[in-house]
Design brief:
This protein is an alpha/beta fold. The protein has 2 domains: about 110 residues, no CATH class; about 140 residues, Alpha-D-Glucose-1,6-Bisphosphate, Chain A, domain 4. The protein contains 6 helices and 11 strands. The protein has an 8-stranded mixed beta sheet, with helices on both faces. Strands 1-3-4 form a 3-stranded parallel beta sheet, with helices on one face. Helix 2 runs parallel beside helix 3. The protein is globular.
């Protein structure tokens, strides 16, 4: 095969970077994949500078790998070639994810292939934010339930300084008073599923007017071990330099504390029969 099988989440690496990956796979003459049942996934630790990539690079790669794996299974492919350096910090978790499927997995060491050219990576002129956190998924908890747990927890954690008001598919983040809406999220019904709860960012004082693809997502990884919380392509209304020392830090701290909250739920429920309870979340 002469092209890389890529799902939409791979745009986290940037279109220019993807073009390099396409050229790279084209140059693998000795590893050319003739069978249509085979697809390849190339792992590299390099992200395009889009403004702010907040989170561990391993988690960005894990997200892309999970999206890729779901597309592969949906397309009923049978074999995957994983192109990755065995020295890559994401190797163990990505390999574990792929091995959890029934696919035939083979690995090509990226160190043996021609290097990518970092100088050709372009930076975005528009400052955007992508933030990702990997969390322990409490047993038998649905993604929908965990998203609702987040909204409930945030109100309690902030002592109702931040209040979450829900109206149908809309979530209003209100500061001190319901009239002061700092963020407005709308559930994306078409993108949400059993393993993903997707909310588009559609307004609020802290969001720039033109959000386009901005969204906040709760995602269960295919092997069901982790929950990812992902902020995609968010454009802040605050001046960029001020955003970096205020809202960006607050978001990171809040998501870290929510991760600790889920860890406590995991520890408290593990081994209690919660998995089989009719009252579980």
């Amino acid at each position: 095969m002469k092209k890389l099988f890529i799902s939409e989440t791979a745009d986290l690496l940037g279109q220019e970077f993807i073009m390099q990956l396409l050229q790279l796979t084209d140059s693998i003459q000795s590893y050319e994949l003739a069978s249509s049942d085979k697809v390849s996934f190339v792992v590299h630790n390099q992200l395009v500078d889009i403004g702010l990539n907040q989170g561990n690079n391993v988690d960005f790669i894990l997200l892309a790998a999970d999206d890729f794996l779901k597309e592969v299974l949906r397309a009923k492919k049978s074999e995957v070639v994983l192109v990755i350096s065995k020295q890559n910090t994401s190797f163990d978790i990505i390999n574990e994810l792929f091995e959890s499927s029934d696919l035939n997995i083979s690995i090509i060491d990226l160190e043996l292939l021609p290097p990518l050219n970092p100088s050709s990576l372009m930076t975005s002129k528009t400052k955007k934010v992508r933030s990702i956190q990997r969390m322990i998924r409490p047993p038998a908890s649905s993604v929908k339930c965990l998203s609702e747990e987040y909204f409930s927890w945030l109100t309690k954690f902030s002592s109702e300084i931040v209040q979450i008001k829900k109206e149908n598919d809309l979530y209003f983040f209100c500061l001190f008073h319901p009239s002061l809406k700092i963020l407005v999220l709308k559930r994306n019904v078409s993108l949400s599923s059993d393993d993903a709860e997707v909310l588009n960012i559609v307004g609020g004082l802290l969001a720039a007017r033109d959000q386009r693809e901005a969204r906040f997502e709760f995602r269960e990884i295919s092997n069901r071990q982790y929950l990812l919380t992902i902020l995609y392509d968010f454009r802040p209304a605050l001046p960029w330099s001020f955003y970096l020392i205020s809202q960006a830090i607050i978001h990171y701290i809040v998501m870290y504390l929510f991760s600790e909250h889920l860890k406590w739920i995991f520890i408290s429920k593990k081994g209690t029969g919660y998995e089989n309870s009719s009252n579980r979340c």
